Amino acid sequence: MSGAFIVSARRTAVAPRGGAFRAMEAHDLAAPVLRACLVDAGREPHEVEHVILGNALSGGGNVARLAALAAGLPASVPALTLDTQCCSGLDAIQLAVRMVESGAAELVLAGGVESFSRSPLRAVRPRTKGEAPVFYDRPPFTPFPARDPDMIEVLARAARGMSRAEQAAFAIASHAKALAARGRLEAEIVPVAGLAFDSFTRELTERLCARAPVLHRDGETELDAAGVAVEADAAAVVLVASRQWVERRLHVGRPLAEVFYVRSFAGAPEDPPGTVDHALRETAFETALVDVHNTDSEARLDWAQIPVVELMEASAGQASRNCAWAGLDPARINRGGGALARGHPIGASGAILAVRLFHEMAGEPPETLGLAAIAAAGGLASVLMLQRS
């Protein structure tokens, strides 16, 4: 146990790139979510001691500071922005937890925000006067070109051995769960720009999936648009508090969850999905709930026994691979649908998993454990486990 609690958690809806949030800067997306987290917990802006947001695409500056000021937090509240690509939002929450654990703060707003729609055009500066700027879509994720594949290639490798029909079935199930949960999801979504639901979610069918354009072929493996999460805009934030703060100030009966475990992992830079496999293995051993007299070195937590799991769906193949490795039933993960049904707002995606986990666990019995896990380009992964209080 960390002694850190999540006492409120909110997000915007997720909108595909060029959708409802196309004119909104990243900090304008995050500001109302920061405010909503405070309102939910019954706290005032001046009580916050730090704001930490993950972001990958804004091109510099300090999005967290802009968001904090736009949200009406006092100018005296520090803010920092971090970038670990897809893990950014979950890593921001981890940093907030560490601050609380260390005694550096008692109340921290943390999460992630991303606007694909407003992300700046990026170019490599010319070295000589005769050269022209070279525009690029993404920076390198490793200094070794041979070990720095495009993410679509990574996802295609993760889908090896999986037919298009099997990938389609996974995506169809994700959309179906999201549609069924739409009313329940309203409790966590802060309406912004008139959007109060995840607008990409639809009644996906086998016929629609069969018509989806093929994005990549890798030998016999085909990756199509239905089986890959779309680029999107969103913000998600949680309020992290210390045990002492909770005991002093939180009203009895308010939903909260204790941070049971949180950690970042790294592995082969060319295989982010494999890093999640590694992260789940290490987490299972480190959090094994075994008798102290049990000397069985192979004792580990059984993921099949965890009732609430939020697993990133960058693609159907990646999510299916991670489920198979950990022994997770795909039908049981992502109760409210996953990123295949919402979209993938890079820096916010990990924080969205945390918000989803918090709200799904609110209906579980005390002491129930829940898991959120995500991978990132460059061979990174992050894991969060919460326990219902």
TrEMBL record:
InterPro entries: Thiolase, Thiolase-like, Thiolase_C, Thiolase_CS, Thiolase_N
Keyword tags: Acyltransferase, Transferase
A Pfam family assignment: Thiolase_C
Every Thiolase C-terminal domain range: 298-387
Record-annotated Thiolase N-terminal domain positions: 5-241
SUPFAM superfamilies according to UniProt: Thiolase-like (SSF53901)
Membership in a protein family: Belongs to the thiolase-like superfamily. Thiolase family.
Name assigned to this protein: Thiolase family protein
Source organism per UniProt: Ancylobacter koreensis
